[in-house]
Amino acid sequence: MKLYAAHLHAIAEALQNIFREGAYADREIARVLKADKRRGSNDRAFIAEHTYAIVRYYRLYAHLAGVEPQSKADWWRLIGIHLLLNDYQLPDWREFQGLDREELQSALEAARQDRALRESIPDWLDALGASELGEEWEATIAALNEQAPVVLRVNRLKADAVTVIESLGREGIVVEPLADDALLVTERKNLFRTKAFRQGLFEVQDYSSQQAAPALEVEPGQLVVDACAGAGGKSLHLAALMENKGRLLSLDIHGWKLEELKRRARRNGVANLETRPITSTKVIKRLTAKADRVLLDVPCSGLGVLRRNPDAKWKLSPESVDRVVEEQRQILADYSRMVKPGGKLVYATCSILPRENGEQLAAFLSSPAGEGWELEEERSLLPQRDGYDGFFISRLSRTR
Ligand SMILES: C[S@@+](CC[C@H](N)C(=O)[O-])C[C@H]1O[C@@H](n2cnc3c(N)ncnc32)[C@H](O)[C@@H]1O
């Protein structure tokens, strides 16, 4: 593809804001793309794809460039390195002067000897991953640097797989059945503009994430609480599994996320969902021993979804991981009380660290709060083994 200076300017601006102004990569890319409405879908895809790739390989590229980028010229240098390593022919522009493909290749070979550099992650994260996952870490972090597959979940309140496949097919988008209600998108296209999406026939949701709601074994007519609902990816799935019958309470500490969930619920034809922001501990206390089912899709490090959110590598710290582990402990201890005896709870994370997953659960079960609970099932999903996001899903039942 021909290189356009305007695209590279947009990428440099996004990178500066992500790395120096603390912007989130997804929001910043959306902002940059919105700023110039004349761009076509190929231009937009180019900017998004290459910005993400440079965020992902930031440490490696900065090492090869020999700079900690601060200025526009520095970011252009990183962009040039990225393009050269991805077989682009660099135009004869002043910004790219001094960049040489062969020199770069030999510097890359040397850098590859060091895993943290090769995989472009901070040293502390490499040490943490190795100590937490042992031999599995090397393949896990390599898989987390690959581009994520795009998976859809058919909204069974409105459609079946065949309807979605045919509707998207009419708009030139090919999807293949994957398993259950999951469809794999074989070519990247803007799915959100399709008729099928606007009609609420599907949601974009990774296949690992699609396994959380079914694990809760909900039944139509139950009282189900999704206690960390966010914008509701899993609430929408729960409502479909409940066939719109019973009560689904979606809670979160951030009311604005629940507003987004309400919009999505309308599009999905969900009729049994109520949102409730957690404004005080009373919201949880009032539900003590009331729920048949509780989903705890807790805040986590997000290390299982680095493919989608590569900037998390640069935003996390050992301290922030410790903090989130403590939040999870608290949520598990307090929110599990909402389950009534005989009811069930799913504890899930999009992390690959045993500290946030199996160890967190084991600590709960051996604590006073875990008395009267039994572990029914636990599964760790790894990108290199299972093919999708890193995820942890466990189900507990309350015996008394
Ligand atoms: C992993 S995200 C949830 C994603 C969501 N379930 C989905 O499927 O789209 C975790 C959510 O927990 C929320 N959260 C953080 N601390 C919380 C707390 N103490 N109580 C309830 N929710 C909390 C965050 O705002 C965030 O939306």
UniProtKB/TrEMBL annotation:
Superkingdom assignment: Bacteria
A Pfam family recorded for this sequence: RsmF-B_ferredox
Family annotation (InterPro entries): MeTrfase_RsmB-F_NOP2_cat, MeTrfase_RsmB-F_NOP2_dom, RCMT, RsmB-like_ferredoxin, SAM-dependent_MTases_sf
Membrane-spanning intervals of the chain: none
Domain SAM-dependent MTase RsmB/NOP-type intervals: 140-399
Residues binding S-adenosyl-L-methionine: D252, D297
S-adenosyl-L-methionine as UniProt keyword: yes
Enzyme active site: C350 (nucleophile)
Biological processes annotated in GO: RNA methylation
Keywords associated with the record: Methyltransferase, RNA-binding, S-adenosyl-L-methionine, Transferase
Gene Ontology MF terms in the entry: RNA binding; RNA methyltransferase activity
Family: Belongs to the class I-like SAM-binding methyltransferase superfamily. RsmB/NOP family.
UniProt-recorded name of the protein: RNA methyltransferase
Record organism: Neolewinella marina
